[in-house]
What does this fold into?
Amino acid sequence: MAAADSWRLPSTVQELAATAPEPPSRYLIPEEDRIAGKLTGAAMPEPVPTVDLGRLSASGDAEEEAGKLRSALQSWGFFLVTNHGIESSLMDGVMAASREFFRQPLEQKKEYSNLIEGKRWQLEGYGNDPVKAQDQILDWSDRLHLRVEPEDERNLALWPKHPESFRDLLHEYMLNCKRVKDGILRAMAKLLELDDDDSLINQFGDNGSTYARFNYYPACPRPDLVVGLRPHSDVCVITLLLMDKDVGGLQVLRDGTWYNVPPIMTNGIFKGPVHRAVTNSEKERMSLAMFYAADLEKEIEPMAELLDEKHPARYKKIKCKDFVAAHYEYFSKRERVIESLKI
It folds into this structure.
């Protein structure tokens, strides 16, 4: 790559955090957004919506719990799952292994780089999100992005060998999350009064994918001017998020106000809301998102069972791989691809 294009390959944020007393200008939010307290966020006006997965699937309590699920999805678009059956030791283990990976020397982590031959960006691997424009504002975070399903299509060359427990922990965590994801989608299908409880699960197609994204947010000297991850909505069907239980940073947008989601000692499920991550001046933060995406060759569109004369389609049909590709184009411009699909 020519020196003139070096802007496409920024340093890892972890490197910058260790050496730069101030964030480079490429990381500073736009001038018009530099209002005192702009990134502070407000306290949530009510407790985080909570759904008990055990009660949701039990015959006697399902209706009451389903009401909580409906309310959470309609009011916030996300909720906290309790009684999900994933052992705390497994969640703690996978987060500890993640931290250990990011704390390795840079040269060791570069063995899993998301840059092909050090130049061409790919989704999987260790590094940063793609840089599409020279004036693009960058996020104060590094990530490790891995495809975990289908299992026979894993690129194990990009799966860290250190710590030794990493691969087994991620595999076990993936199996547990799959069970939780299926339980949530079946409950949502019932809420939508679909004919088959597996209707939403079947929307993934024959070759749906699951991605694990490990987000690492180093401490930042200017949390008032820098975001860890810009505002966005996920482009997958559903996301399971394992949050740092000690350090907050996740914010969700509702009715024009950004609200702080407090650190939570369990799994959260996020569907649809616009959210962002802010930085902390003193502490690093970790999170692990499990993204469940449809078959890339599948055309995605509003389900026919949910449409009628009073409820026409509001979005255009698009192939999943085109939707994902467009997401990164819009994401780099701090815009949402879904807005371009409205009819």
